[in-house]
Amino acid sequence: MLVLNALEAGPASLASLVQTTGLARPTAHRLAVALEHHRLVHRDAQGRFILGPRLAELAVAAGEDRLLAIAQPVLAQLRDHTGESAQLYRRQGDVRVCVAAAERSSGLRDTVPVGSALPMTAGSAAQVLLAWEEPDRLHRGLRGAKFEAATLAAVRRRGWAQSVGEREPGVGSVSAPIRGAGGRVIAAISVSGPLERLTRSPGRLHAAAVVAAAEKITEAMRRTAG
């Protein structure tokens, strides 16, 4: 912890670590290298020690626990309001994972089990999770996608996405972004169901409700962040 606390201020050479922590040079080096092995510490281009990517992953996991606790009742409210199944997706690499859901209890429905990994190349949730990415990552994500850059520009402009048979024939969906610290998109909330109910313009039916649910979760995340 002495080493990690010292690196919170920014990149540090071994000599700087020794000075800041008061540890003996061999001890500081051994601890820093061990932390590097576990990705809690990393090296920059100048070979200085910096905080590692594992810390960010742990922070995301902690944030996800909070997100799930906040989102579950909102998903149930969204399902009851729209009459369609509601899901929460997070991006993990090249897929999006359903991390929470509230299923329609009866009748024809689109069921996405929690834990399902779906492609980032189709569906309104994929559009939302990609639309606000950095330009180079966005353009890489469009390779092989069933939607185009113009589609994502429209998503950014109106604040929600819709898909009609993109992921699965006969199924439509509407999604909106959930934002975390600094306004970054951290998840997508969706409703999905058969096109015979959602029609060819599912956004016209459910965009307002989905956006309101996304904003409710975003605001609750912002309140609990402190």
From TrEMBL:
Residues 54-223 form the IclR-ED domain. It comes from Thermomonospora cellulosilytica. This is DNA-binding IclR family transcriptional regulator. Residues 1-53 form the HTH iclR-type domain. It comes from the Bacteria. SMART domains: HTH_ICLR. PANTHER family: HELIX-TURN-HELIX TRANSCRIPTIONAL REGULATOR, ICLR FAMILY (PTHR30136), TRANSCRIPTIONAL REGULATORY PROTEIN (PTHR30136:SF39). GO terms for molecular function: DNA binding; DNA-binding transcription factor activity. InterPro entries: GAF-like_dom_sf, HTH_MetabolicPath_Reg, Tscrpt_reg_IclR_C, Tscrpt_reg_IclR_N, WH-like_DNA-bd_sf, WH_DNA-bd_sf. SUPFAM superfamilies: GAF domain-like, Winged helix' DNA-binding domain. GO terms for biological process: negative regulation of DNA-templated transcription. Keywords: DNA-binding, Transcription, Transcription regulation.
